[in-house]
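Ticket reopened. Same input as before:
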Amino acid sequence: MFDQVLFFFNALLQQTGAANFTWGNLVMIIIGGTMIYLAIAKHYEPLLLIGIGFSCIVANVPGPPDVPGGPPVSALLYVVKEGGLFHYAYEGVAKLIIPPLIFLGVGAMTDFGPMIANPKLVILGAGAHLGIFVALILAKLVGFTISEAGAIGIIGGADGPMAIFVTVKLAPHLLGPISVAAYSYMALMPMIQPPVMKMLTTPAERRIEMAQIRKVSKLEKIIFPAVIAIIVNLFFPPVAPLITMLMLGNLLKEVGVTERLAKTAGGPLMNMIIMILTVAIGSTMAADKFLTWDTILIVGLGLLAFLFGTASGVVTAKIMNLFLRNKINPLIGSAGIASVPIAARVSHIVANQANPHNHLIFHAMGPNLAGVFGTAISGGIMLALLGVQ
Amino acid sequence: MIPDTVYGAILLSVIDFFLSFLVISGIGFVLALFPYLNQLGTIDEKKLREGGH
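Engineering reply: fixed in the latest deploy. New output:
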């Protein structure tokens, strides 16, 4: 009788996920929980980290095997198998539906005035992208193919949708770890960037106050999206879908007669996309897929890309200061890494700590926005050189 | 086009980094011309908003 009860309990256990729970699942659940903690307690990009953290936890709760004796199906259930909501979220990312929609929303929320007003700072959008190439070369050195290395390098562009876009084109099998690394580091930029920024600047440099920039007219703001869309479609067709949508969103905002559309693109649509995107990214974090040597390398290289990108942006700003009569605060250089508006906010906060009267956010937004184009241009050139359409 | 070697990765990086600087400088140059657009006239934002919907 007791043996029979034990047998039935054992059989029941095998029908649950508990029998398939691994230490890897536990590690990933802790990582997911840490993300949620950072979002709630430290306010580190809660819009991103809550969804990623939660779906990471869920993706690491194993279910029973699909077939007796087979592997547990948590990752399969949520990512690969049709029918699960996470599957469709993931497909939206993998089929490149989500990234252009994110750019549409970002465009509808963004004022490109700071970038138009101070064109010389646009150069920082390229200067802060050394990290892409450091990570690319290191990735090749540790054994990735050149396409994989390119996709890993683009993490350093600190532009999530662009990282997804380039990865799907170059190395779709690495979409999970690369998107996780890109979005996690973007969310953790307030922790990653300041030590590098402080290391490379003197207190006097951090205290530099910049002159107020000119007011940009409505006419300039309306013409800007069309001009950029023409340039990008003409010279960088591989990344044109993203930048074109960014510019369309911005045009909807600036023309003034499509307020409803701009509000929808930058509000409810963007919110829905964020929920889908974070679920899609977090659901790729199942332990059996994520806790691999390649993923650890990608995460490490991604961190190096962010560090070098931040450093090269600050150094580029310092080099510019050698030639400028009105000195710029080198802290705005790190904003050239993209990740709008997180990097600009970090520049502002670090400058504000050194000089409480210094409000750098508007100045930092210029290079920050230029960084979006810098990443797109780097990605476009990379795709073209690697022969990818 | 680019060989799948470390040399290829360095080549890709150098070309990409250099071209990125060049192109973004070009965008900067175009933006520097933007103030001249204002010589074409001004847009009344209030009228613009009233005209829609």
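Chain A touches chain B through 53 residues (CB under 8 Å). Chain A has one domain: 19-63+72-385. Please confirm and we'll close it.
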